[in-house]
Design brief:
This protein has eleven helices and 13 strands.
């Protein structure tokens, strides 16, 4: 009987010990979440959301450059619901996908604790991010690989919107910034972060403030040196996003001469950006460059057609008539216009019908754009 009771006591001790270990581990992760969430932010621009992490008490935010690459304005939201405007930066590195942002506030913040870079494959890690705009989601995993350059591959689940979020070690210290994930249709849980060592030396850099309250990308370009501008433009070409390309390829305000032969190219870029989300600012930019091109008798077909489309969307009949006359000299393009005009007259007030014809007209702009790009070297 004594031997039986002894076995029961040992069994109970083992079970209790295991239970305590599980409870402690769960409690530890929960405490880590409560502590870390004070230092994590949601980043919002006019067209996307992302994540960031607070690095010092003044509110320096680390995130990925691609989160803010095409921003007009940038808003940062903390876990308590307070919103702040980004008013500048300390460090921007498009090639490394790194941005250290500053906030317009005198409030003090709880910064994340920085790690020491002594991480190994198999170590437990945590991600605290805003996947798909769902705020402050906590997940865990392990380090599955560390690349030669220090980039960290990990298994904690993340999604678009997690970019810029902190990757934390088991004690809650920052070891990296979540930057990308492998195509989830081809593979799962192959996610990447760049290490703290890629930017920690810049946390105390001097603030560069947007005192003139320019649009974010205009502000970046206005402050860029020749070397930095070259970086932005290389990034834009690699991105292959019309909005990003236009914002970084357009000339620095008042500091660069633009060749006449480049007017239609800038018009094309801004028009392509306008096609993506019908941003009124891009419409005005496209109109400016196409008008300058037309006045210089440069790429008349492309420029007049672009201006015709912009007048159509603005319902500006007088300008449409002017550009219609220009396009009479180009049989193929003029035929597209006359056929579309005939189809529009049959639409009556059917909005879907009108939308489909306008879509075809914009598609033809892309045909002209491709022809222009192909022949641009001969101009």
């Amino acid at each position: 009987m004594k031997r039986f009771m002894k076995k029961i006591i040992i069994l109970l001790f083992v079970l209790c010990t295991n239970f305590l270990c599980i409870s402690y581990a769960s409690s530890g992760a929960g405490d880590l979440y409560k502590k870390s969430i004070k230092s994590v932010v949601l980043i919002e621009t006019q067209n996307k959301t992302g994540s960031g992490v607070i690095l010092d008490s003044e509110g320096t935010i680390a995130t990925c450059f691609h989160v803010v690459d095409s921003a007009d304005k940038i808003t940062v939201k903390t876990a308590d619901g307070t919103k702040y405007k980004v008013n500048g930066y300390k460090y921007i590195n498009p090639a490394g996908d790194i941005a250290l942002l500053t906030l317009k506030t005198t409030n003090k913040f709880t910064p994340i604790e920085l790690g020491k870079g002594t991480n190994s494959v198999g170590d437990t890690i945590y991600a605290l991010s805003n996947p798909r705009g769902i705020e402050f989601v906590f997940s865990d995993g392990i380090i599955s690989r560390i690349e030669k350059g220090g980039n960290i591959q990990f298994t904690a689940p993340v999604s678009p919107g997690s970019s810029g979020a902190p990757l934390l070690d088991k004690t809650g210290k920052l070891i990296g910034i979540i930057s990308s994930q492998y195509d989830i249709s081809k593979a799962q849980n192959i996610n990447f972060a760049f290490p703290l060592s890629k930017f920690d030396s810049h946390i105390s850099d001097k603030n560069i403030i947007n005192t003139k309250n320019k649009l974010w990308t205009d502000f970046l370009v206005s402050k860029a040196t020749k070397a930095q501008l070259k970086q932005y433009r290389y990034y834009a070409f690699m991105k292959k996003d019309p909005s990003v390309m236009y914002r970084y390829l357009k000339p620095k305000e008042g500091k660069e001469d633009v060749r006449e032969e480049d007017f239609p190219f800038l018009g094309l870029l801004s028009m392509s950006a306008y096609e993506e989300n019908f941003d009124s600012s891009m419409s005005k930019e496209a109109q400016t460059w196409f008008l300058r091109s037309l006045l210089n008798n440069n790429s008349v077909e492309l420029s007049a057609y672009g201006l015709f489309l912009l007048s159509l969307t603005d319902k500006n009949d007088n300008c449409m008539d002017i550009y219609w006359d220009y396009l009479k000299k180009y049989p193929r393009t003029f035929k597209v216009l006359t056929v579309s005009a005939g189809e529009l007259s049959k639409c009556s007030k059917n909005e879907e019908c009108v939308k489909n014809i306008c879509y075809k007209l914009f598609e033809y702009f892309n045909v002209l754009a491709i022809n222009y790009i192909q022949n641009r070297g001969d101009e």
